[in-house]
Structures are given as structure tokens and as C-alpha cells.
């Protein structure tokens, strides 16, 4: 479900995921922005990038990613809240690059205790969808406070990254009103990655998003206009997802396909990292 208008610049969605008892699912999730998640399951494991999967804490702060997250869940229910870059700056108030491609128990982070209390309540009493949504809204409204000094600039850069017309670091720096050197420092602090990585991630997600919305199309039909050719896209795919597009297409995607369906219904985009904070949600469907 989409956040109310006053929180839309800071939160991309509230979502609930249910995996039936006795059902064991595995998925390979594309890059995303930061999230708060909570839940319990018979099995709840994940890894960002390479390496073995590890147990995920019951209340998690997850930073932005630029690579695949491999996930396995058996029999569980989860709540999550997507954070925009401006949302991280407003509610976490620390450099986001300290959590890029990482997740941790929220109790071991700098998050306000009210966020952990919210996640604990959602985990233990989250069956009433309306009450849970109200709790999330009330908690974040209570933490709004004064916006950080960089709030407007973060939002402007975020909107620029969503535009297919912006293709260079110089364009982004100019929109932010910064020198290239200053902008190279600004982006990791507020977006988790360098400007070049952010542009690469967005063109990749725009392409993958088109395919996820219509898996019947060929990959060549989903390519973003900023790719030189299909080989360029395949290189990006390997770097990001640790596999080829055809290998990805052959795998089951029960979590990501459900998320794509709901994100598209709510926000008109395929993925959280493509969320446009100035686009009003079209529905209140939840996952």
C-alpha cells in the first residue's frame, strides 16, 4: 500500500508478505533502496551478492543495494517499509553508505527506538492490515521533525535519477548545483553509491522492470535507451545479478513477481528503486 501524501517523499510503500506454512520459496531479488523489515518464519535466510546465505534477524534495517539479494523463506509472515533516499536522511540521519549492500538487526543500528518498537508490534500484532498501516504512518509522522539541510537536494537528485533524459554524472551534478568533486562525495553519503553506479543501476532496473512486467517479451525489447547494445546489457546483468538474463528467466521468482505486481498497481512502476515520490498511488492494495 502507498504512504499518505505527507510521507510519500520519504516512504515508497508499506508491504506484507505471506508464505504459507510448509511452503519453502527461494528468490533472487534485484537491487533496491533501503528497507525496514520484520517477521518470523521457519526459515528466513538471505545474502546480498556472493557468499552463503545467513539467518536474517526478526527486525531488520537493510541499506540500498546495487547487486542481487538471494532470499529463502519457509512458512512465515513479514511486514516491510521501503525508504527513499530522502527518507533515510530524514529518519536515520546517518550516511547511508555505511549500510550499502548490508542488512543488520535494527537494534544494532542508529535507528530511533520508536522504529524497533513499531517493527516488534507489526511482527507480533500485524494481522489487522488497517491497524498496521496506521501504526506505520503514526510512527513515521512522529519522527518527521525538521528536514535535514540537504532534503531538497536529495529529492531533486532522486527525481533526476528517475529520468531517462539524464545519462551523465555531469548532468546530475549540474542539477544538484554542485561541482563534480562535491557531487562525488554527496552521492555515497545520501544514496549509498557513486553517481556512476547509480546511473548504471537505474538503467539496469528500467530494463529489468519492463521484462518483469511482461516476461513474454524478449530481452532485446526491454533494453533501456542508454544501453549501447545487448552485449552491454548482458555485462551489466552479470555484474548485478551474478547470472545471465536467460539463467535469471529460468529461475522461479515467487517473491519478486508478487512484489512487481503490487508495486505496479500501487505506484505504476515495477520496482521499489523506480518509485516516483511525486506520483500519487493508484490503489491501496497490499502484499
TrEMBL record:
PROSITE patterns, alphabetically? HTH_ARAC_FAMILY_2
SMART domains to which the protein is assigned, alphabetical = HTH_ARAC
InterPro entries named in the record: AraC_XylS_family_regulators, HTH_AraC
List UniProt keywords, sorted A-Z. DNA-binding, Transcription, Transcription regulation
Please list which residues make up the signal peptide.
Answer: none
Does Nucleus count among this protein's keywords? no
Occurrences of domain HTH araC/xylS-type (ranges): 151-251
Q: Which domain of life is it from?
A: Bacteria
Record-linked Pfam families: HTH_18 (PF12833)
Q: Report what the protein is called.
A: Helix-turn-helix domain-containing protein
